[in-house]
Write a structure and sequence with these properties.
It holds the Pfam family Creatinase_N. This protein is α/β, with parallel strands linked by helices. The protein has a single domain, classed as 3-Layer(aba) Sandwich (Creatine Amidinohydrolase, Chain A, domain 1). Helices cover 27% and strands 16% of the residues. The chain has a five-stranded mixed β-sheet. The longest helix is centred in the first third of the chain and has 8 residues. The N and C termini lie far apart (34 Å).
Protein backbone atom coordinates (compact mmCIF):
# COMPACT_ATOMS: atom_id res chain seq x y z
CA UNK A 1 0.00 0.00 0.00
CA UNK A 2 1.47 3.35 -1.01
CA UNK A 3 0.66 6.10 1.45
CA UNK A 4 2.88 8.68 -0.24
CA UNK A 5 0.33 10.21 -2.63
CA UNK A 6 1.44 13.78 -2.00
CA UNK A 7 0.74 13.48 1.71
CA UNK A 8 3.49 14.40 4.14
CA UNK A 9 3.87 14.37 7.86
CA UNK A 10 5.66 16.88 10.03
CA UNK A 11 7.88 14.34 11.81
CA UNK A 12 9.18 12.98 8.53
CA UNK A 13 9.78 16.44 7.09
CA UNK A 14 11.67 17.54 10.20
CA UNK A 15 13.77 14.39 10.03
CA UNK A 16 14.58 15.05 6.38
CA UNK A 17 15.58 18.62 7.22
CA UNK A 18 18.41 17.12 9.27
CA UNK A 19 19.91 15.70 6.06
CA UNK A 20 21.08 19.20 5.12
CA UNK A 21 21.51 20.70 8.61
CA UNK A 22 24.82 22.57 8.95
CA UNK A 23 26.17 20.33 11.74
CA UNK A 24 25.33 17.17 9.82
CA UNK A 25 26.82 18.48 6.58
CA UNK A 26 30.01 19.47 8.38
CA UNK A 27 30.43 16.07 10.06
CA UNK A 28 29.37 13.98 7.06
CA UNK A 29 31.41 16.04 4.58
CA UNK A 30 28.21 16.92 2.75
CA UNK A 31 24.47 16.48 2.83
CA UNK A 32 23.00 13.05 3.55
CA UNK A 33 21.15 11.33 0.71
CA UNK A 34 19.56 8.50 2.69
CA UNK A 35 19.20 7.23 6.23
CA UNK A 36 18.88 3.59 7.31
CA UNK A 37 16.89 2.70 10.41
CA UNK A 38 16.59 -0.90 11.61
CA UNK A 39 14.05 -2.01 14.19
CA UNK A 40 16.62 -2.57 16.94
CA UNK A 41 18.06 -0.76 19.90
CA UNK A 42 21.65 -0.20 21.01
CA UNK A 43 21.59 -3.47 23.01
CA UNK A 44 20.11 -5.62 20.22
CA UNK A 45 17.25 -6.42 22.63
CA UNK A 46 14.48 -8.75 21.55
CA UNK A 47 11.94 -6.43 23.15
CA UNK A 48 12.57 -2.75 22.50
CA UNK A 49 11.38 -0.20 25.04
CA UNK A 50 9.03 2.44 23.70
CA UNK A 51 11.72 5.03 24.45
CA UNK A 52 14.20 3.30 22.13
CA UNK A 53 11.76 2.19 19.41
CA UNK A 54 12.90 4.67 16.76
CA UNK A 55 11.12 2.96 13.87
CA UNK A 56 7.81 3.23 15.70
CA UNK A 57 8.40 6.88 16.59
CA UNK A 58 9.20 7.86 13.02
CA UNK A 59 6.81 5.61 11.07
CA UNK A 60 3.97 4.74 13.45
CA UNK A 61 4.55 1.02 12.83
CA UNK A 62 4.75 -1.06 16.02
CA UNK A 63 5.62 -4.49 14.61
CA UNK A 64 8.84 -6.19 15.71
CA UNK A 65 10.19 -6.76 12.19
CA UNK A 66 10.91 -3.56 10.30
CA UNK A 67 13.59 -1.72 8.41
CA UNK A 68 13.14 1.89 7.31
CA UNK A 69 14.92 3.77 4.54
CA UNK A 70 14.42 7.50 4.24
CA UNK A 71 15.56 9.73 1.38
CA UNK A 72 14.67 13.32 0.60
CA UNK A 73 11.84 12.13 -1.65
CA UNK A 74 10.85 8.70 -0.35
CA UNK A 75 10.23 6.97 2.96
CA UNK A 76 9.91 3.20 2.87
CA UNK A 77 9.37 0.54 5.48
CA UNK A 78 10.18 -3.11 4.84
CA UNK A 79 8.51 -5.85 6.86
CA UNK A 80 7.57 -9.48 6.34
CA UNK A 81 4.21 -11.11 5.72
CA UNK A 82 3.30 -11.35 9.41
CA UNK A 83 2.95 -7.57 9.49
CA UNK A 84 1.63 -6.43 6.08
CA UNK A 85 -1.90 -5.68 7.30
CA UNK A 86 -0.67 -4.12 10.53
CA UNK A 87 1.77 -1.90 8.61
CA UNK A 88 -0.96 -0.78 6.20
CA UNK A 89 -3.03 0.32 9.18
CA UNK A 90 -0.28 1.89 11.31
CA UNK A 91 2.07 3.59 8.86
CA UNK A 92 1.83 7.35 9.06
CA UNK A 93 1.25 9.43 5.91
CA UNK A 94 4.24 9.70 3.62
CA UNK A 95 5.45 6.12 4.16
CA UNK A 96 5.42 3.35 1.57
CA UNK A 97 5.15 -0.30 2.64
CA UNK A 98 7.78 -2.50 1.00
CA UNK A 99 7.00 -6.19 1.32
CA UNK A 100 9.98 -8.26 2.40
CA UNK A 101 10.43 -12.00 1.87
CA UNK A 102 8.00 -12.29 -1.04
CA UNK A 103 8.65 -13.22 -4.66
CA UNK A 104 10.12 -10.31 -6.65
CA UNK A 105 10.52 -8.13 -3.55
CA UNK A 106 13.34 -5.62 -3.67
CA UNK A 107 15.62 -5.43 -0.65
CA UNK A 108 16.69 -2.11 0.87
CA UNK A 109 20.21 -2.68 -0.44
CA UNK A 110 19.00 -3.36 -3.98
CA UNK A 111 16.68 -0.35 -3.80
CA UNK A 112 19.63 1.87 -2.91
CA UNK A 113 21.80 0.42 -5.68
CA UNK A 114 19.06 1.07 -8.24
CA UNK A 115 17.93 4.48 -7.00
CA UNK A 116 20.82 6.33 -5.37
CA UNK A 117 23.58 7.93 -7.38
CA UNK A 118 27.16 6.76 -7.14
CA UNK A 119 28.82 8.59 -4.26
CA UNK A 120 25.58 9.10 -2.33
CA UNK A 121 25.97 9.51 1.41
CA UNK A 122 23.98 6.96 3.39
CA UNK A 123 23.82 7.58 7.13
CA UNK A 124 22.95 5.27 10.01
CA UNK A 125 23.40 5.01 13.75
CA UNK A 126 26.28 2.54 14.27
CA UNK A 127 24.93 1.63 17.72
CA UNK A 128 21.94 -0.02 16.07
CA UNK A 129 24.05 -2.52 14.11
CA UNK A 130 26.00 -5.52 15.34
CA UNK A 131 29.74 -5.24 15.04
Amino acid sequence: MDLTDGVTNRKLEEFRALFTHDDIVKNACGAIDAYLLPSTDAHQSEYISRRDFRVRFLTGFSGSNAFALITLKEAMLWTDGRYFIQAQIELEPGWKLMKDCVLDAISPTDWMIRNLSKGSRVAFDPQLYRH
